[in-house]
Write a structure and sequence with these properties.
The chain is α/β, with parallel strands linked by helices. The chain has helices at residues 9-31, 45-52, 81-90, 107-118, 158-166, 185-189, 204-212; strands at residues 2-5, 34-38, 62-66, 68-70, 97-99, 125-128, 151-155, 179-183, 193-198, 230-234. The strands form two sheets. The protein has a seven-stranded parallel beta sheet, with helices on both faces. A three-stranded antiparallel beta sheet has the order 4-8-7. Helix 1 (9-31) packs across helix 2 (45-52).
Length: 245
């Protein structure tokens, strides 16, 4: 695991995007295609803006997968991750194909559908973040480190739901969904490269627990310590509790 502290959020997004773009180009060059996983949320604003502006990426050779989505939330809702990805990424570059998670379908059937698609390929780059409760995707603590299914239906804990409210995605706490479809921890860890971007002081405790604490389901993102090619990009507030940097 490689930790990179950037000067500010804009630099964090640019460096993470440059890293991801380089990995995508290499995959296309060596195998003809690149398969990527894309996260959403406030932590990815700058990353995706920089990624779509990256030069010399043949997006017609890229297949994308959606990391997580709320159960029961229509795409028209401002908090819909399908809407987020469509507006910020998929409509802005010519993907060969992008596989959304449909949170309005039967959730377990949808897990099987996108899981079957995902298992047909190897993921070259996963773009992820870390939540205020140290979640990875929507795997809240205690996360299931053992399941080998690609996607699963998860219950969102209070800290996770309050983060979504605090970031302005929902008008009230009661409006935040209680369930989501999430890529599993084991599936994320199968990615050849993980590019993780984490800004903001409110995530400093989660960053410390995830990067310098024990590997434990109570801090789901701590599993990144065991990945052979994971780089964590932080702004100074997010890194403020880390020691030895």
């Amino acid at each position: 695991m490689n930790i990179q502290v950037c000067q500010n959020v804009k630099e964090m997004g640019q460096r993470a995007a440059d890293d991801a773009a380089a990995r995508i180009r290499l995959a296309i060059q060596t195998q003809g295609w690149a398969h990527i996983i894309v996260a959403t949320g406030a932590s990815q604003f700058e990353v995706l803006a920089a990624l779509v502006a990256s030069p010399d990426v043949d997006w017609s050779r890229v297949v994308g997968f959606h990391l997580d989505e709320y159960v029961g939330l229509p795409m028209s809702h401002p908090a819909s991750f399908r809407r987020y990805l469509k507006e910020r990424l998929v409509d802005r570059v010519p993907f060969h194909q992008f596989h959304y998670i449909d949170g309005e379908s039967d959730p377990r059937a949808e897990c099987r559908r996108v899981g079957d698609l995902l298992q047909r390929c190897s993921i070259d780059v996963a773009l992820v973040g870390i939540g205020e409760n140290a979640h990875l995707a929507f795997n809240d603590p205690p996360a299931d480190f053992q399941t080998d299914v690609p996607y699963l239906v998860v219950e969102l804990d209070e800290a996770c739901r309050r983060q979504q409210l605090g970031e302005g995605w929902f008008p009230t706490f009661d409006d935040v969904p209680r369930q989501a479809i999430s890529m599993s921890i084991s599936q994320i860890m199968k990615s050849q490269t993980i590019v993780c971007s984490v800004p903001d002081l409110r995530k400093a405790m989660a960053v410390q627990a995830s990067l310098q604490g024990p590997v434990t389901p109570q801090a789901p993102a701590s599993i990144l310590q065991q990945h052979g090619c994971a780089t964590i990009y932080l702004d100074p507030p997010a890194a403020s509790l880390l020691s030895g940097l």
